[in-house]
From TrEMBL:
Keywords: Repeat, WD repeat. This is WD40 repeat-like protein. It comes from Dendrothele bispora (strain CBS 962.96). CDD domains: WD40. Gene3D superfamilies: YVTN repeat-like/Quinoprotein amine dehydrogenase.
């Protein structure tokens, strides 16, 4: 799928698998038809810097994007129009964005060391920033029930947060020896997976915060992206070592 004029930083499927969204250093977001491979409509333009993270809402009607311009933007997938004003509040680049399963909230993680929650209907920030990380926040995700957020950071830790109160749940999940680049929940919310510059993938028990088993090792370079399969039995990881690896979870 060609059309971007610079690096592509983030891609995601719509829930019905009919479309892909991509975000790029060319400052644009593009929609693609998964059957034909054709670009759908014009690029979504508005960001003033690299687009770092994109995601579809579960119903496929909206896209969320985060950028080095410190803003988050909502887009209508039918018209390609930006919905409302940019979501502003971060004092640094936005590195990761995600929708809650019901589409009512967005979570963002930033170079300003904070995580923020946003109301998708009003664009307003919900509560105070979630603070606790000692370095840039690289990755954020909601649990399927929307009750918790997981975050990964360059402070080498993974943290769990209560979305209702904004409080950190337990202590940091510690074990990585370098930056944490990517985090994800299993579909049932009982486990978290994290990938790091230390070349390892680690599994965590969300109830206890304990690491599950030994680190998953095999990559020859840092782990840039990780995800669970829908049934939670497998993990996929990507790395600058030019490989993608599958693991039993």
């Amino acid at each position: 799928l060609q059309g971007h004029d610079d690096w592509v930083n983030s891609v995601a499927f719509s829930a019905d698998d009919t479309r892909i969204v991509s975000g790029s250093d060319d400052k644009t977001i593009r929609l693609w038809d998964t059957v034909t491979g054709a670009q759908i409509g014009d690029p979504l333009q508005g960001h003033d810097h690299h687009v770092t993270s994109v995601a579809f809402s579960a119903d496929g009607t909206k896209i969320i994007s985060g950028s080095l311009d410190k803003t988050i933007r909502l887009w209508d997938t039918t018209t390609g129009a930006q919905i409302g004003d940019p979501l502003q509040g971060h004092d640094g680049s936005v590195n990761s964005v995600a929708f809650s399963a019901d589409g009512t909230r967005v979570v963002s993680g930033s170079d300003d060391w904070t995580i923020r929650l946003w109301d998708t209907a009003t664009g307003a920030q919900i509560g105070d920033p979630l603070q606790g990380h000692d370095h840039r926040v690289t990755s954020v995700a909601f649990s399927a029930d929307g009750a918790r957020i997981v975050s990964g950071s360059d402070d080498f830790t993974v943290r769990l947060w209560d979305t209702a109160t904004g409080a950190q749940i337990g202590g940091p999940l510690q074990g990585h020896d370098h930056y944490v680049n990517s985090v994800a929940f299993s579909a049932n919310g009982t486990r978290i997976v994290s990938g790091s510059d230390d070349k390892t993938i680690r599994l965590w028990d969300t109830a206890t915060g304990a690491q599950i088993g030994d680190p998953l090792q095999g990559h020859d370079d840092w782990v840039s992206s990780i995800a669970f399969s829908a049934d939670g039995t497998k993990i996929v990881s990507g790395s600058p070592d030019k490989t993608i690896r599958l693991w039993h979870a």
